[in-house]
Amino acid sequence: MIKKGLSSLGIFFLYLLSLLPFWLLYLIADFIYLVLYYLIGYRRKVVQENLANSFPDKSAAERSRIEKEYYHYLSELIVETVKLFTISAREIERRMEIKNPELLKDYFKQGRSIIGAVGHYGNWELGALSLGLVTDKRRIIIYKPLHDDVSERLFLKMRSRFGATLVAMRHTLRKMTEFRRELSFSVFVSDQTPVRHEAHYFTPFLNQPTAVFLGIEKIAKLFDSVVIFCDIRRVKRGKYQCTFVPLVEKPKETAEYEITELHVKYLENVIRQEPAYWLWSHKRWKFKPE
Q: Which of 139, 166, 168, 237 is spaced 20 to 30 Å from 155 by Cα?
């Protein structure tokens, strides 16, 4: 009962915080950076190990620079995510520019549903929300449920604010089958870590053998969906661009693992170009292939 009360109080505080203007939230982000990086050293060992393994060719000084840039960005990402609980549609359009929305219209005119692969790169939550503003077709977001029920309900409410249908990963096939007669745009996270018993395929990613989900490939082939990559780039503080990049138009004609390799390698290339905006504090390499 006490825990539930504290959680409700925390949610109320987050909603109040989300009402603050961006300029004030970014001042708070600057303070969060000092706390995360210098005061508590939030997951710094994880970040340092991930960077060292991913970029062995870079010097210690280069990796240290990326590390600091990452914590600066992580602090921004925290306040931007809080803002999403109350952000308006108009503000989303100002903050996330969709470069080529016509690509979606073209595929829908062909009667094709679309799968969009997205990484934990840039503000992927803002990108997912913006999808509700670029098409009136069904938008489906595949997500990994949180362990805390209160946080789970909070994020479900936030992510579905503009009409998206939220589908837990374990229900993907059943729900996609249910919606198969509708044209849809489904968003899958390309770099989500599978649990051990679901780690059936490993591929080199950032210089390490990495377990990846095969869900994008399986669903694309089963329902003959076009596969694109949602390439989200940070332009400057609080401003992003998203470009839809076609990867596969004829999934049934691809070789095994071809689709998986395409979206994983595309994300890897994005990260290598500007590494500070990927989620380095995530424990992505929890286990190795046996």
A: 237
**How far apart are alpha carbons 59 and 37 in whole angstroms?**
20
Tell me the pLDDT band of 8, cut-offs 50, 70 and 90: low
**Dist CA 99 CA 3 (whole Å):** 44
Identify which of 120, 83, 114, 84 has the alpha carbon closest to the alpha carbon of residue 101.
114
Q: In 3D, which of 155, 145, 14, 151 has the Cα closest to residue 79?
A: 14
Distance, CA of 271 to CA of 11 (rounded, Å): 32
Annotated domain spans of the chain: 2-83, 96-277
State the Cα–Cα distance between residues 145 and 167, nearest whole angstrom.
9
CA–CA separation, 63 and 79 (whole Å)? 25
Residue 258: pLDDT band with limits 50, 70, 90 = very high
Cβ-contact 159, 178 below 8 angstroms: no
pLDDT on residue 1: 44
- Label residue 5 by pLDDT band (50, 70, 90): very low
- Strand-by-strand arrangement of the 138-143 sheet: 96-98, 239-248, 226-236, 114-118, 184-189, 138-143, 165-168
Nearest CA among 262, 278, 286, 211 for reference residue 51 = 278
Which region among 40-49, 198-207, 257-266 has the lowest average model confidence (pLDDT)?
198-207
pLDDT tens sequence across 119-139 = 999 999 999 888 878 888 999
CA distances from 268 to 1, 243, 263, 272 (A): 44, 16, 9, 6
